[in-house]
Design a protein that fits this description.
Layout lengths: L3 H7 L1 H4 L3 H9 L1 E6 L4 E3 L7 E7 L1 E7 L5 E8 L3 E2 L1 H6 L6 E4 L3 E7 H10 L1 H27 L2 H11 L12 E2 L3 H8 L3 H13 L3 E4 L2 E4 L2 H6 L3
Antiparallel strand pairs: 1-8, 2-7, 3-6, 3-8, 4-5, 4-7, 9-11, 10-11
């Protein structure tokens, strides 16, 4: 089981820091365990931290006063998020919930700002991270508007393999059908139907405790 230091050392940006920069990053980062269904962070609250998933699975979503919920993306082990809100210095504009019990690293705003001010490597990573995030959300908008549900489920799974945003993902995803449904914005039953379609296409295999991805390129191009 990873701890905060192991998460930082496994992160692309952590590997690029000098030892002094790494020590500063580590000293400014703490860990919390978030129960399944609880908020990792909430829409409207002050943005005081940059966050990374040590172990677990979260869902970025927007909940409206009308009761409607829009799922934006999943956040899996190794992922860091929240940099946009920190850079814009505005209240958080989305919720992040733990789909299962999740251990989260919280880097303080002051530490994040210090790295921006002092580390060229960290700035280069942040440019790449923001560019990947922009591409992710453009793709999600396309998926939501143009794709059928089975294809959307395929793209949700494929999105968890972005090497920049989710470097800790392996070909065996520890994710249940219910959790997949949360990420795709469909019921567990509909997620199960979609998985069967993907299994029949030879792209995935449902196993005890998760989903084994057999053909990542096939998931990315499914429905084209």
């Amino acid at each position: 089981m990873k701890n905060v230091e192991e998460l930082l050392r496994a992160s692309l940006w952590g590997q690029a820091l000098t030892e002094a920069e790494f020590d500063r990053a580590l000293s400014g980062t703490s860990e919390r365990t978030i129960a399944a269904g609880a908020f990792i962070c909430m829409k409207g609250e002050p943005v005081d931290y940059w966050m990374g998933i040590i172990d677990g699975l979260g869902k970025m979503a927007s909940h409206w006063t009308t009761g409607k919920t829009t799922s934006l993306t999943g956040i899996s082990t190794g992922a860091w998020f929240g940099e946009g809100s920190l850079l814009k210095k505005e209240p958080r504009r989305y919720d992040v919930m733990a789909i299962r019990e999740t251990r989260v690293a919280y880097m303080s705003r002051s530490t994040f700002t210090w790295l921006l001010d002092n580390s060229i490597a960290f700035n280069r990573f942040m440019i790449t991270q923001l560019n990947e995030r922009l591409g992710q959300f453009i793709g999600m908008m396309e998926n939501e508007r143009l794709l059928d549900i089975d294809t959307r489920i395929a793209r949700v799974l494929a999105a968890l393999f972005n090497p920049v945003l989710y470097p800790g993902t392996t070909h065996f995803l520890q994710i249940s059908q219910e959790e997949l449904g949360y990420l795709a914005g469909v019921s567990r039953q509909r997620a199960n139907q979609g998985l069967k379609v993907l299994e029949d296409a030879g792209l995935v295999r449902s196993e005890y405790g998760g989903i084994h991805v057999l053909n990542l390129d096939g998931l990315r191009s499914f429905g084209d």
